[in-house]
Amino acid sequence: MAKVISPLHSERAGGSVGGCTYSRARGLDTVKARPSPTQPRSARQLAIRAILSTCSRAWANLSAPNREAWDDFAALDPQSDWTGRTYYLTGYTEFVRFTTLLLDMGLAQVDTPPAIAAPPSVVLFAAANGVLQSVCTWTTPGGTATQCDIWHLGPISQGRVPKIEHAVHNSYTTAETATKTITGLTPGRHWFWARNITETNGQFSPMVLDYADITAT
Questions:
Q1: CATH number, domain at 187?
Q2: Are 59 and 94 in contact (CB under 8 A)?
Q3: What is the largest CA-CA distance in the chain?
């Protein structure tokens, strides 16, 4: 950061121009280089971006009746934010979020919206304490085939509130298996979320949560 006099040949400048950001702090005009935005390039991020592109093209290729059916479905599928406020998604957004899950699990796209209720939540989900790993278990669901979608966050300090927004996807496991060993963990408290996803249409249940304390020995 550098001090400047008469920035941009004016008495005062603010904001960004080119690669520089001009501002005033404590009576001093300053300018600093504006960092270029980074584009994460992990294999997981690239895979999801590719799936989202596929979903966007798939929506464009849907028939008009199918797009209208998704719009109708969205109008009858209220969502809730963290405050409890109700809102609605568009038909396009509903199609993309279900299709993304199906394609990410290696399953086929479904052109029409779900005609059945979402699956129930994962029952008796538990993450066991362990040495550099945790064994997650749940009750085997009945009915149609589902996948147990597991997300992980940690280690984080005890007392901190875990947030799903900070978690990363860990794995899809056939829900009937009812167990998944999460390895490669470092010592500390780790949090795990799980939800059921229906293999036929991508509908999913609310998340359930548990934690495990991991040690080195």
A1: 2.60.40.10
A2: no
A3: 73
Domain containing 24 equals 2-33
pLDDT tens-place string over residues 28-40: 667 677 666 566 6
Instruction: Tell me the HSE value of 97 on the side-chain side, using a 13 A CA sphere.
Output: 12
Distance CA 27, CA 128 (A): 57
CA distance 128 to 193: 13
- Do residues 72 and 146 share a domain? no
Q: 210, 126 in Cβ contact below 8 A? A: yes
CB 197 within 8 A of CB 169: no
Say if 112 falls within a structural domain. no
Q: Is the peptide bond before 141 cis (omega within 30 degrees of 0)?
A: no
State whether 130 and 168 are in the same domain: yes
The closest of 97, 106, 92 to 204, measured between CA atoms, is 97
How would residue 15 be classed by pLDDT, with cut points 50, 70 and 90?
low
155 and 202, same domain (yes or no): yes
Same domain, 92 and 168: no
